Amino acid sequence: MAERDIPEDHADHADYGDYGDYGDYGDYGDYGDYGDYGDYGDYLAGYPDILTGACATGRRLVRDELEALRARGERAAEAGIGLRTLIHAHLVTAQAVRPRLRGPAADHLLAAITQAVDAFAEGYERAQRLAVRQEEAARREFIDDLLYGRSDLGRLAERAERFGLILAHAHAVAVAQGAEPYDDGYPVTRRVEASLLARFGDRRILLTTKDGRLICIAPGDESDVLRYFAKQAYAATDGGQVAIGRAHPGVGGVVHSYEEALNTLDLAARMHLDDPVLHAADLLVYPVLTRDRQAMTDLVRTVLGPLQQARGGAQPLIDTLTAYFDTGCVAAEAARRLSLSVRAMTYRLDRIHKLTGSDPGDPVHRYTLQTAVIGARLLGWPEEGV
Predict the structure, then answer these.
(1) If residue 173 lies in a helix (H) or strand (E), which one and from where to where?
(2) DSSP state letter for 276
(3) Cβ neighbours, 10 Å, residue 58
(4) Which of 61, 136, 374, 382 is the most exposed place for a label (fewest CB within 10 A)?
């Protein structure tokens, strides 16, 4: 510090080792002129005294001072005041204190400011983390209530607006699953969310996770959002599968669409459907077939039960019928898919005809056989007993 900054009666204290002359900072005047901090007075009151008290003896801030600063930081965060603005206010206030300090007291000011601002910011960040955790908990509770159809519907609709959804409108839900489970904070989730926000901005879209799956809820008239989500989710999950439910109106519409998407993924697993994107609307025939499970069970037992008498069991012949129907009843193409010769394929079809009494090549018998094969795949027969 230059000699001109040292009071004349202390000019010989070149080593600044004696703080005794600066221990009583009452000589520096009344700090009432620091009492007006504009809109931030509640968060800066007493701050000049803390700085001056620490600088007077070159000490560190004591515990009570640090806790007071942390508490003010928490209150400022809860009030929604920006941290950058508050730090600037602290620095400006410190600049007003600086001219009243001399010698080693002034030299210690920067260290005191550092401790004070650090404590204030610590309290501010602590309050922010708590707010984030509370927001995440509220969001998760809302998601669970929304997708399970719980809670009072009127209250649910009110809470939905906070998260960007107007449940009076129709909504559709897409569900993506991959080789591993995903949660809200996972890189895959953040990547898909960032892509959606960059493409569509604020379009009342809700992206979340549930039971390890990615979920996108969008207005029912914005199918482009779910198509884009499906594309991004498929890429991000490294070849996962996405199911899109139909749009349904009202508070219960989200639940309905979500359940359709889940059922579609379950159906895909049972039917060995490997399409990357599946639409519930395209697969409505399957729920119809399984609506009367007992009737479907009787059909499978009656039509396909005799195939169990074959030497290798029923499964190879079920696979034969599946490939045959999937290829439009073209025996040569079905044989290629099963890595069989055409002659072996023809033999299997004849064997099926003899065991069941139904000819796969006959249009009348074909429908019965194909329906029974679909039923067998839905029921997991013959692996699972029916």
Answers:
(1) strand 171-177
(2) S
(3) 16
(4) 136
- Which residues in the chain show pLDDT less than 50? 1-36
- Output the pLDDT for position 293: 87
In this predicted structure, what is the pLDDT of residue 386? 63
Q: How far is residue 233 CA from its own chain's centroid?
A: 12
* Residues 192, 24: Cα–Cα separation, whole Å: 61
Q: What is the pLDDT of residues 33-82, one digit of tens each?
A: 444 455 677 889 889 999 999 999 999 999 999 999 999 999 999 888 99
Residues 6+ apart with CB under 8 A from 310: 316, 317, 351, 355
Burial 279-301, CB ≥16 within 10 A → b, else e: bbeebeebeeebeeeeebbebbb
* Integer angstrom CA distances of residue 153 from 210, 218, 219, 296: 20, 19, 18, 36
Query: What is the DSSP secondary structure assignment for residue 21, as one 8-state letter?
Result: G
β-sheet bridge partners, residue 242: 176, 277
Which secondary-structure segment (H or E) carries 277?
strand 277-279
CA dist 35 and 252 (Å) reads: 56
Q: What is the pLDDT of residue 123?
A: 92
Q: What is the pLDDT of residue 35?
A: 42
- What is the C-alpha to C-alpha distance for residues 170 and 65, in angstroms, rounded to an integer? 55
Indicate the length of the chain as a whole number: 386
Residue whose entry in the numeric block shows the structure tokens 């094969």: 373
Q: What integer pLDDT is reported at residue 385 of this predicted model?
A: 67
pLDDT for the residue numbered 138: 84
Please list, residue by residue across 22-36, b when 16 or more beta carbons sit within 10 angstroms of its beta carbon and e when fewer do: beebeebeebeebee
- Residues 237 and 339: their CA atoms lie apart, in Å, by 31
Write down the pLDDT at residue 19: 35
Check if the beta carbon of residue 215 is closer than 8 Å to that of residue 254. no
Strand bridging mode 241-244 / 206-210: unpaired
Task: Select from 59, 129, 51, 136 the least CA-distant residue to 91.
Answer: 51
Q: What is the C-alpha separation between 228 and 192, in angstroms, rounded?
A: 10
